[in-house]
Amino acid sequence: MPFTSVKGAEIYWKMDGREDAPVLVLLNSIGSDMDLWDPVLPLLRDDYRLLRIDTRGHGASAAEPGDYSLSLLAEDVLTVARAAGAGTFALAGVSLGGMIGMELALSQPAVLEKLVLVCTSATMDAASWDARIATVRGQGMIAIAEMAMGRFLSPQFKADEPGAWDAVLRGLVSSDAEGYAGCGAAIRDMDLKDRIAGIACPTLVVTGTRDTSTPMEVHGEYLLATIPGAESLVLEAAHLAPLEAPEALAQGMTTFLEN
Ligand SMILES: O=C(O)CC1=CCC(=O)O1
């Protein structure tokens, strides 16, 4: 299993897809791991070398205690990409993964070729993240499970795909509370709002009509209005769009990445 050490923490990653194809990095949301991209993987693997990374504190990556920052999480991605032999790459990230992507686009503009921001934001309510961090540190993941699942997936998806919904719930409640809190602090403390006008690479902003965590009218519209030249893709999906609309997401990403 490939692990790369960053500042003493082992970060887990996996490479799939066509070996001679351009690299596309795929990043997960808080409370999930690289498996979030499973339904999309078969639709992209013939055209890309797919580098999935379990965000620090999630999946098989180490969950060091303490608060993380977006710059630390971006350093994880850059270090792993170099270890995997990717000098430059495109990146698609869901929610926290998109925030890490924006940070990387700003701090390492020469490395990022294209950016796909899936159901994400440049700013979230700091007080509510502070409360969420205190809850998981004090009471564990189960204490936020119902609330977080309601923000992840739509009632329609729960009714149509109960097995997939259960798998997300199991992944969420088995997440390391300290790793979740560490990433929650990176979301709470992010300072992207006034900086993203400086993103220079072509960017696709993907929003979901059923997304209640980062509603498109507020979060997606701000990204589209602020990132120069950003393009829009609207999906009929809630926050975890790779699960709710894998075909439409893969199609939209492919069109954007190839043009
Ligand atoms: O609001 C949620 O719980 C969903 C979410 C916010 C950031 C992220 O990565 O997922």
Automatic annotation (TrEMBL):
One of its GO terms (molecular function) is 3-oxoadipate enol-lactonase activity. PANTHER family: MONOACYLGLYCEROL LIPASE. NCBIfam families: protocat_pcaD. The keyword Ubl conjugation does not apply. Keywords: Hydrolase. It holds the Pfam family Abhydrolase_6. Residues 24-251 form the AB hydrolase-1 domain. It comes from Novosphingobium aureum. GO terms for biological process: beta-ketoadipate pathway. It comes from the Bacteria. This is 3-oxoadipate enol-lactonase. The keyword Ubl conjugation does not apply. Its EC number is 3.1.1.24. Transmembrane segments: none annotated.
